[in-house]
């Protein structure tokens, strides 16, 4: 997003020229550090925006069935069909989201969890896959770097923090300062560096606010900041909104252990059944969830112990329809019933941000806008790389020149330090980059000239 200086270094006031060089230098470092990761996040994120559509297409033989003018079989019959095909313990039943959707039953086996897809009209088993192994679950794990271990996930926080630095410094460098061309239009041809400079700057200008939004709303998934804020937002690791903390026996199990849940409820503990006698059946539990009005497509986690509960949960695109209900497995009475409206202001804000980040809040418009932003991120990265290559002196890295007055770094580093305190891993990476910059300066022995 680097722009041309509107005046030469000789004619510009020293403070202006030096500050420009300082910002440009750190903008360069930010791009060098995170643009490869941002390309990966943009590509995988752009695909995941359409996760339901793509999974329904790619796994149509498992997820879709022919619509018939007939009632669905009872859930217990569907679970029995799934267990005939894959022997094991039934852990979860997923209600078909529409008339053309299959039922999904999660079975626990010695080899792990397996999802069995069953035709809800006649109980035919359509096939089975390991849990969370669909095309879009694979893309999601790539997007969050879960495939590469815990430490790799820390890159999410570092990338998001440096993306904020990239946008802020890029807007500062773009600022016209009397410049007429390259502000909101692209000059020249692809053979010229000014074309790539303008393409980089103008694309960044229009996409910058959206990139900031994605960076901030992606932070809840980060390894350090996200985990700590999650604990704090859930209220000393309890998980439920304040109004729902009641005197109930609670298990040590968390909601995220039994079923996919929202970020705000990952730490939520599950209550225990206190009744005695004959447990209700899955069919009766599903009938209760239907009477309570849970949105279609809800998941039912089955009790695994005498103290376990039936947990019905659903997280549709419409945030107002998010809901989690725990039923006593003996009496069928709701122990806890919570929805999006029960979250506190912080929880609602975070969930809205996450929902919008995933392209769900505003339907197709949400998906298409963020898809355009993902394409813009790739274009910004590619144009920045081409611009650097054309500017780079032969045989050199092409690091932007140091300011003559090093004092301009003080204010810049103070701003960066504030960000480092708010986002600890970003702060650590800032210190590493600062140390590497000092090593680079000393090893070079002198400041290499570079074109502005």
From TrEMBL:
Superkingdom assignment: Bacteria
Nucleotidyltransferase as UniProt keyword: no
InterPro entries to which the protein is assigned, alphabetical: PepSY, PepSY-ass_TM
Membrane-crossing residues? 26-50, 154-175, 195-216, 368-389, 409-436
| Coiled-coil portions | none
Q: Which UniProt keywords apply?
A: Membrane, Transmembrane, Transmembrane helix
Name all PepSY domain ranges.
77-127
**Pfam families annotated for this entry?**
PepSY (PF03413), PepSY_TM (PF03929)
PANTHER family referenced in this protein's UniProt entry, alphabetically: IRON-REGULATED INNER MEMBRANE PROTEIN-RELATED (PTHR34219), PEPSY DOMAIN-CONTAINING PROTEIN (PTHR34219:SF1)
Q: Which protein are we looking at?
A: PepSY domain-containing protein
Which organism is this protein's natural source?
Paracoccus limosus
């Amino acid at each position: 997003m680097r722009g041309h200086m509107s005046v030469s270094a000789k004619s510009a006031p020293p403070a202006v020229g030096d500050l420009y060089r300082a910002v440009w230098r750190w903008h360069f470092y930010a791009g060098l550090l995170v643009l490869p990761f941002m390309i990966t996040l943009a590509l995988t994120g752009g695909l995941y925006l359409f996760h339901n559509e793509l999974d329904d297409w790619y796994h149509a033989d498992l997820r879709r069935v022919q619509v018939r003018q007939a009632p669905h079989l009872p859930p217990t019959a569907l679970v029995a069909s799934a267990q005939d095909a894959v022997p094991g313990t039934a852990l979860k039943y997923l209600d078909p989201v529409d008339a053309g959707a299959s039922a999904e039953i999660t079975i626990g086996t010695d080899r792990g969890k397996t999802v069995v897809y069953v035709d809800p009209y006649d109980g035919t088993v359509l096939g089975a896959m390991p849990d969370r192994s669909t095309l879009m679950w694979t893309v999601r794990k790539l997007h969050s770097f879960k495939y590469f271990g815990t430490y790799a996930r820390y890159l999410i926080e570092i990338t998001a923090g440096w993306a904020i630095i990239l946008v802020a410094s890029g807007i500062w460098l773009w600022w016209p300062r009397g410049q007429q061309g390259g502000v909101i239009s692209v000059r020249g041809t692809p053979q010229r560096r000014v074309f790539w400079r303008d393409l980089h700057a103008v694309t960044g200008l229009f996409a910058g606010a959206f990139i900031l939004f994605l960076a901030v709303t992606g932070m809840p998934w980060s390894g350090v900041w996200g985990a700590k804020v999650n604990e704090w937002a859930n209220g000393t690791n309890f998980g439920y909104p304040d109004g729902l903390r009641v005197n109930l026996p609670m298990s040590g199990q968390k909601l995220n252990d039994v079923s996919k849940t929202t970020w705000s409820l990952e730490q939520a503990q599950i209550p225990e059944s206190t009744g005695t006698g004959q447990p209700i059946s899955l069919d009766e539990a599903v009938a209760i969830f239907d009477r309570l009005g849970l949105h279609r497509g809800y998941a039912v986690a089955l009790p695994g112990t005498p103290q376990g509960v039936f947990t019905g949960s659903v997280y549709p695109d419409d945030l107002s329809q998010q809901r989690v209900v725990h039923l006593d497995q003996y009496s069928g009475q709701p122990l806890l019933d919570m929805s999006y409206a029960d979250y506190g202001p912080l929880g609602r804000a975070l969930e809205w941000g996450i929902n919008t980040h995933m392209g769900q809040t505003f339907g197709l418009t949400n998906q298409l806008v963020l898809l355009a932003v993902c394409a813009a991120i790739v274009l910004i990265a590619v144009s920045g790389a081409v611009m650097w290559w054309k500017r780079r002196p032969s045989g050199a890295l092409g690091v932007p020149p140091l300011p003559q007055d090093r004092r301009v770094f003080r204010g810049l580093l103070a701003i960066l330090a504030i960000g480092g305190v708010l986002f600890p891993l970003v702060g650590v990476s800032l210190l590493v980059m600062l140390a590497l910059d000092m090593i680079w300066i000393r090893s070079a022995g002198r400041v290499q000239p570079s074109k502005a």
